[in-house]
Amino acid sequence: MAVKEGDPSNQDANHKKLNRILQDMDHLNRDLDRLQEQVKSIHNRVNLPLDKLGLDDVVQQFVGAVGFVFPLVFTEEIWDLAFSISVFRAAFLIVLTLFLGYVFIGRSKLGHMAQQNIIGIPLRLITVAFIAYGSTIVIIYLYGLQAYYHLDAVTYFKAMALFGTFSVIGAIAVDMLG
Question: Cβ distance 64 to 175 under 8 Å?
């Protein structure tokens, strides 16, 4: 027996199917709204604000710089190396160290750090350089190593360049991982 289009039983069945489909769509829309809210909540928890350079970062840099260089300033072999390198090599070592620091700080995606630049130079690199080389100079002076090794200004510079390399590495490592 064929069902005709105008048959009331066929219209009633189609109406019921349509109502079920509409109810299913309402349930799906509510589920979708709940999922979107959950995704927003997760997104807000995961996307924390970027870490700007602060006092805590400067302290971490100082701890890393001193922690890495401190044992080395009492090592005779490294002092022998500091005496033997040329001023040109010491200057090149500083430039190379700062370049590698720039690569690590400015180009790596380690840490959740905001890009803060001064004249195109990452602010973290500037603070690392001042802290690392400055703490190296101060440690050499405080422990009287300039008198012990009879350092003139040139040799002091060479020692600062050599020890500063380790100090920069320590400052960057602790800052980026801390």
Answer: yes
pLDDT at residue 98, rounded to an integer: 93
Is residue 113 domain-shared with residue 166, that is, in the same domain?
yes
Report d(CA 131, CA 134) in Å as an integer: 5
The label of the residue with tokens 């090794």 reads: 149
- Domain range enclosing 12: 7-47
Specify the pLDDT at position 158: 95
Could you tell me if residue 1 is inside a domain?
no
Q: Does the residue 167 lie in any domain?
A: yes
SS3 for 100-133, per residue?
HHHHHHHHCCCCCECCCEECCEEHHHHHHHHHHH
Among 164, 173, 168, CA closest to 108: 173
Distance CA 127, CA 98 (A): 11
Q: What is the pTM of this model?
A: 0.68
Q: Compute the 3-state secondary structure of the chain and give helix, strand, coil in percent, each to the nearest 5.
A: 75, 5, 20
Query: Is it the case that residue 53 has pLDDT exceeding 80?
Result: no
